[in-house]
Fold Putative ascorbate-specific transmembrane electron transporter 1.
Amino acid sequence: MDMMKGGGASSASKAAVDARTLVAHVLAVAATVLVLLWCIHFRGGLALRSSDKPLIFNVHPVLMLLGPIVLAGEAILCYRSLPLSRDARKKAHLALHAAGLAAGVLGVYVVFKFHVESGIPNLYSLHSWVGIATISLYAFQWVAGFLAFFFPGASPATRRRTLPWHAVFGLLLFVLAVGTAQLGFLEKLTFLQGAPLHLPKYGAEALLVNFTALVVLLFGIAVVLATVTIDATRYNTVM
């Protein structure tokens, strides 16, 4: 009977994890579609070079969402969601984070390019300060993980001691990236609602931006919930 109960608990736990990862995947797709809809339909499109400078800026939110948030979130989830060997999942984790970091670095470059070409000062807002700190720590985390777990690779004992810290620090960085995005959505919407555009506060675009930010926040929550282990049996007590 105990073995049957244990098997049932294990199946229930796996089903809960699968449900959480599925929700996270759906939210990742929704967030990506929404930010593309905003930047292409409402803001006019994307361009790395253009005389219409806001088109250059539009690349920034797309890359920063895809990189340090969506791809990073999928990298965190891949150990639970990919039906592959542990070694294959480890390589997928590395590759997804590398792609996320590359997108994030390009996204930071694009916003600096937009500011310089538009005559706007750099690094004057909390969003920019936290953003630079986040992408810098993300790069440090990736390099440290590569050196410790891939090449040249630390000793098995060192890897065992490092792994919990690597996982916790990575999850904290992901949460920081989601928080930075919330600041970015708020800052951009505030600018759009000011002069000279005076975007309506209850217009379709304003609602879309707020809803996109909400979906990104929910994605962040879903990734955290899918990653942490919640075992109620550990806290059962005899009443």
The two ends are 22 Å apart (CA to CA). The helical segments are 2-42, 53-81, 86-118, 126-149, 156-193, 204-227.
